[in-house]
TrEMBL record:
One of its GO terms (molecular function) is serine-type endopeptidase activity. One of its GO terms (cellular component) is mitochondrial inner membrane peptidase complex. Residues 14-102 form the Peptidase S26 domain. Heterodimer of 2 subunits, IMMPL1 and IMMPL2. Catalyzes the removal of transit peptides required for the targeting of proteins from the mitochondrial matrix, across the inner membrane, into the inter-membrane space. Known to process the nuclear encoded protein DIABLO. CDD domains: S26_SPase_I. Its EC number is 3.4.21.-. This is Mitochondrial inner membrane protease subunit. Keywords: Hydrolase, Membrane, Mitochondrion, Mitochondrion inner membrane, Protease, Transmembrane, Transmembrane helix. Belongs to the peptidase S26 family. IMP2 subfamily. The active site is at S43, K91.
Amino acid sequence: MAQSQGWVKRYLKAFCKGFFVAVPVAVTFLDRVACVARVEGASMQPSLNPGGSQSSDVVLLNHWKVRNFEVHRGDIVSLVSPKNPEQKIIKRVIALEGDIVRDVRKLKRM
């Protein structure tokens, strides 16, 4: 009986050590390096979520590149919605600082 209690005690001690190391490492990784997000809706079709509302894609968001301002045209970025701060949106970068953007739809009507 004493031998089984010693095994349980060693197991719990090893589990706690692993837990208290793994949790901070995982939280730091998800906050600073990258995290996983689900894409729903049709705004990024056909690149993401080609099935529309019936399905959703899962993407890896690279926090490291954004922190170092390494965003380029064509990149897909995630940001806080200006209309609803509790919601994140995903958009494709079409212009960078200093670029002039014209609405082609308005030019065609003229």
